[in-house]
Amino acid sequence: MLPSLSLSPSQQQDHKFKRVTPKDSLNSGDRIFLPHSVKQITPPKHDSPLTLTAKQINFIRTLVIYKDPHILVLNKPPGMPVQGGINIKRSLDAVAAECLNYDYSEPPRLVHRLDRDCSGILVMGRTKTSTTLLHSIFRDKTSTASDDIGTKRRILQRRYWALVLGCPRRSGGLVTAPLGKVVVDNGKSDRITIVDNPTSLSSQHAITEYRVIGSSSHGYTWLELSPLTGRKHQLRVHCAEVLGTPIVGDYKYGRQAHKKWGQFDLSNLEDTTEELLKEEALPFGLNLNKGCISDKHPRLHLHCKQIVLPNISQALQNVQSLSDSTYDLSEVEALELEADLPPYMKKSWDVTNS
């Protein structure tokens, strides 16, 4: 979220500005100032519910890998946005609200995010209570990340698989590089980068554990990445800027590395999406078969392979109230969830291990 500034009447006289933090609340008379890069956008009109075909509904339901009374877990396909926005009509959360309610009167709700081109485990809450609890688990995981270093038993564990260009100097380790957002292309876009001054107000601490799963004679390396924090593009930036091994198919943070690699055609990347849509093999314009390292335009090779979290259903049976601060979620049995790689990443796995 872009930073904003608040100026109260008393502060106006002293011309002092205060950066607003998520914990701050507005008082009567406060004024909000936004950066010049923020544009006023007319909120989209909420039309009638999405109209989905039987084929689309069946496809979305095949993505469900776990369901109980309180949570729903999907294996998100790459190329499908998780949340709606400008020019996004059929995001995964909107589609799930139409066909994954099952016998509930309320739709499943997002509790965390995955990049549009990232695949893998996506957890959703089926009730307001479970959603609140899941939100706290994912949020607290980031705020207490430094305390989790070296801890054997963590409340939340996430493991991603990524295929990268090159190989890290060490077979495993910990990346603790703070991240910040910079505006590029004359304010037309932004990107995340490593912040040199970790005490800067705009920096966010970001911690990632990694280990090498396997290397190939082709020069690629499979990594297991475990983010202890949940920052935007954290894994992609840590791989590209700290480890020096950008993720295959990440042209935002590893375009130059892909050019140096020499075996990929990067001349018409924008046309690649249209090409995939023309060869639609699945609903929602998805094609999961193209994009391996043998193709001209590899897709992002980043997949949330496993998540371990407390069994929410058991936790809600044992706790009387979410405000019960004495309840220890680490005492709840762990729920281990795994998601298969998308077809194009499976092909890359076979190529690199042949």
Outline: globular
Largest sheet: 10 strands, mixed
Number of strands: 15
Mean pLDDT equals 84
| The CATH architecture of the domain at 49-144 and 310-338 | 2-Layer Sandwich
CATH class membership of the domain at 49-144 and 310-338: Alpha Beta
Measured as a percent range, the helix fraction is 10-25%
**Alpha-carbon Rg, integer:** 22 Å
The CATH topology of the domain at 49-144 and 310-338 is Alpha-Beta Plaits
Low-confidence runs (pLDDT<50, min 5 residues)? Answer: 1-8
Helix count? 10
Give the ordered list of helices and strands.
EHEEHEEHEEHHEEEEEEHHHEHEH
Between the first and last Cα atoms, what is the distance in angstroms? 44 Å
Structural class: alpha+beta
**Proportion of residues in extended strands:** 15-25%
